[in-house]
Design a protein that fits this description.
Blueprint (H helix, E strand, L loop, with lengths): L1 E5 L11 E6 L12 E5 L6 E9 L13 E3 L8 E5 L4 E3 L4 E6 L9 E5 L11 E4 L8 E9 L2 E2 L6 E6 L5 E5 L2 E2 L3 E8 L8 E10 L4 E13 L3 E7 L1 E11 L4 E2 L6 E5 L2 E2 L7 H7 L2 H16 L5 H16 L2
Parallel strand pairs: 7-13, 15-22, 20-23
Antiparallel strand pairs: 1-3, 2-4, 4-5, 6-8, 8-10, 9-11, 11-12, 11-13, 14-16, 16-19, 17-18, 17-20, 20-21, 20-22
Protein name: Ig-like domain-containing protein
GO molecular function, one term: transmembrane signaling receptor activity
GO cellular component, one term: external side of plasma membrane
Length: 321
């Protein structure tokens, strides 16, 4: 960084032409007509600076030396931009703090300047807090510090990316089991190492609303592990998962429900009870039903896994009456 020192003569008259002499580590050693001097700040430029002046047409008299200006030319460290939490990829709605840190600058009176994608008025604090991030907050962030008359270098740029809210994917293994066996649920979220906690629910049908609510499973409230084991399952049932991270905690949407099919009793995974389901699979209706299912598959309106679930339910209704 550079600094400019200016020597001014008060009440000297606007038409008077002045010459100037400087005293200091980084100034000229002879008289000059320039009333300012510019030099690069370094450790060798530290010291006291003074100036005096004389009229051009009078080489025998001059003013007194000015009061000394003391320059501390220590080299300022290059700052570092950090994120708290430290994730460079966050999701829409999350909160993150961008911080400017200068090594060895503790206790000094710093002001800060920011370069950022969204900052119209750069804050003078060493922290910039982004609350409920949006896609427009994506971009590069850098900072520099200022102390007295000197600026540090600009920090390296740290790039922040704001993504859409993730939707976890739930898998179950096995999806078909004998009554009393164990089943493992796995919940996958983008960037699994980024501090997620996992939440596990059972889908409970609400027949009056023709929908399902979610009932938290035992010890399923914020597990560090992305897998959950259900022991001794005897009913066909549906499950969902979710994830959260940060403080305050940011939550994903719920996953799509996944079903575990058991040869035991139905647990009413749909807002229809077993007699109604089995009536649909009775010989009187089954041929019509499978024709409709076949049409849905040909139109790509039904996934193969859903079709297999229909077959399982058909077999259950004919073997477990």
């Amino acid at each position: 960084e550079t600094i400019t020192l200016t020597c001014e003569v008060q009440e000297g008259g606007e038409t008077t032409e002045w010459w100037y002499e400087w005293r200091g580590p980084s100034t000229p050693t002879q008289w000059t007509h320039n009333n300012d001097v510019t030099f690069r700040v370094s450790e060798s430029s530290s010291g006291d600076y003074m100036c005096k002046s004389r009229r051009r047409d009078d080489s025998y008299s001059s003013t007194e030396w000015s009061e000394a200006f003391t320059l501390s030319g220590s080299i300022l460290s290059k700052p570092t931009v950090t994120l708290q939490p430290s994730w460079t990829q966050i999701y829409s709605g999350e909160t993150v703090t961008v911080r400017c840190e200068i090594q060895g600058g503790e206790g000094a009176q710093w002001t800060y300047e920011w370069r950022a994608a969204k900052l119209n008025t750069p804050p003078t604090s060493n922290e910039y807090r982004i609350i409920r991030a949006t896609e427009s907050d994506s971009g590069g962030y850098s900072c520099r510090g200022r102390r007295d008359y000197f600026f540090s270098e600009w920090s390296d740029i740290i790039t922040l990316t704001v993504l859409y809210k993730p939707c976890p994917v739930l898998t179950v293994s096995p999806s078909w089991l004998s009554p009393g066996a164990s089943v493992t649920l796995n919940c996958e979220v983008e960037h699994p190492s980024a501090g997620w906690s996992f939440y596990w629910y059972k889908a409970v049908p609400d027949l009056s609303q023709k929908s399902s609510s979610y009932e938290l499973l035992p010890d399923g409230n914020g597990t560090a592990n992305n897998s959950y084991i259900i022991h001794g399952q005897t009913h066909t049932a549906g499950y969902v998962c979710g994830a959260g991270r940060g403080d305050p905690e940011y939550h994903t949407d719920h996953s799509q429900p996944k079903f575990v099919w058991s040869a035991g009793q139905f647990d009413s995974v749909y807002p229809l009870n077993k007699p109604i389901l089995c009536q649909l699979f009775s010989p009187k209706f089954s041929w019509y039903f499978f024709i409709v299912v076949n049409i849905f598959i040909n139109l790509q309106c039904m996934r193969l896994s859903d079709f297999l679930h229909v077959i399982v339910m058909f077999l259950l209704c004919h073997t477990v009456q």
